Amino acid sequence: MKRVFLAFVLGAFGVLAVGQVTISFWHAMSGAHGEALSYLIQKFQQENPGIVVDLVYQGGYSALQQKLIAAVAAGQPPTIAQQYENWTTQWLDALVDLDLFVPKQVLDDVLPQFSEIFEGRIVTVPFNKSILVFYYRPDLIPNPPKTWEEYEAIACSLAKDTDGDGVLDQFGTAFRPPNPEIFLTFLVQAGGAILSPDWKEVTINNAAGLEAAEFAARLAKCALIQSAYISDAIQKGIPIGGWIDTSAGYPYNMNAARTAGVPLAVAPLPCHKNCSSMIQGTNLAIFGVNQSKAQIEAAAKLITFLLREDNIVYWAQKTGYLPVTKTAIYGKLWQDYIAQHPEQKIMTDQLLAGGFGQLLHPKYMDIRNVLITYWELLLKGQGTPKELMDALASEIESIIKG
Fold first, then answer.
1. Does residue 352 sit within a domain?
2. pLDDT higher than 50, residue 8
3. Closest CA to 177 of 387, 396, 384, 376
4. What is the pLDDT of residues 287-320, one digit of tens each?
5. 272: closest CA among 373, 154, 152?
6. Which of 61, 243, 348, 401 could form a disulfide linkage to 174, CB 3.0–4.6 angstroms apart?
């Protein structure tokens, strides 16, 4: 694939004074995550007094996505932004080839689980990355499940209608329909995939896909199904035995459990044919449109700073995200930390044992949208697993061939 190198808008654009440059950084980090990011940006500016970072919180991920779509269409994107892989495929030509600006040793240090090539180009680096793990209440589940069979048996033994009104009020597990990545983890653990390796055939409805769907449908009968984060239900005192969530949800889940006065612990995901777990979180990319060369170089310097061992370990300690470089994850700083924090060690081991990323198909954003629809239908029992998987496969086929 031809390398795309965007022409720079050279001259005084973005320059406040001689030797000083301003870059805009759009993000979706709020709460403790936002505080940690603000600290790192302040530290960067202290180390690089010639660079001013305009750190702009754009709301949650959906708001950030919509604002980036509009900004790219208008030719006025930020210098640097968080973005998911399925967003990145929509505006590849607006992005800078990072290997032209970020030192090779920095890019080579990225863990292979996070290495991503978009049509032959390196246009993003990982930043706030997490992994799916199993959260559970040890008072309800003394020994967390290690297999699908154990997960289903435990979850459905805990699901109860305690007041006899015909509706469950204690749940064995819980799911959020907006998060189809849990289904994709089941799919990969069953040995399946959305598409064949050459992307020419839709395979999500083969035997592995049906096995994953049937397992999810059985679990759903014993689960709380809600669009809000599961931590909201925990905080309200709704009893849930255990559920799958991201490592980045750790501070929120623990705070919710403390508020409710219940214990909470972390375990690896229950496994099936393998122990795969889908990687979550966004990457960083630099836009070349309407940016000077000085701004692009400053943004590349920021990326290098954020991936430095001390900074990425600080970020991981404060947020529940995981180190994204080999130097950081195997280094003394992180290893000493996880030796004292067993939950983070579990998360780290889960990533290294079976972390996998998004499908880098150029139409994955559309594919994920239909995945969300059918995941919700599956969880709510609005169709048999086979009917839903076949219908989903048909829609995906129309997307990739359309």
1. no
2. no
3. 376
4. 999 999 999 999 999 999 999 999 999 999 999 8
5. 152
6. 243
As to burial, measured by CB atoms within 10 angstroms (0-12 exposed, 13-18 middle, 19+ buried), residue 377 is middle
Tell me the sheet residues that pair with 21.
15, 51
Whole-angstrom distance, CA of residue 341 vs CA of residue 291: 42
Q: Find where tokens 């496969």 sit.
A: 393
Amino acid at the residue 46: Q
Dihedrals φ, ψ of 36, to 5°? Answer: -65, -40
Please give the Cα distance from 112 to 101 (Å, whole number). Answer: 20
Distances (CA, A) of 327 to 10, 42, 318, 335: 35, 23, 19, 11
Write down the pTM of the prediction: 0.89
Residues 125 and 115: their CA atoms lie apart, in Å, by: 8
Task: State which residues form the domain around 124.
Answer: 15-128+281-343
- Per the prediction, the chain carries an average pLDDT of 93
Distance CA 80, CA 118 (A): 17
Instruction: Say whether 271 sits in a helix, a strand or coil.
Output: strand
Q: Is residue 6 part of a domain?
A: no
Question: What total number of domains does the chain contain?
Answer: 2
What is the average pLDDT across 6-15?
39
Q: What is the dihedral of CA 230, 234, 235, 239, to 10 degrees?
A: 150
* Residue that has been written with the tokens 């997490």 in this structure: 130
Any domain includes 353:
no
d(CA 182, CA 249): 14
Instruction: Say yes or no: 99 and 227 in one domain.
Output: no
DSSP 171-197: BSEEE-TT-THHHHHHHHHTT--SB-T
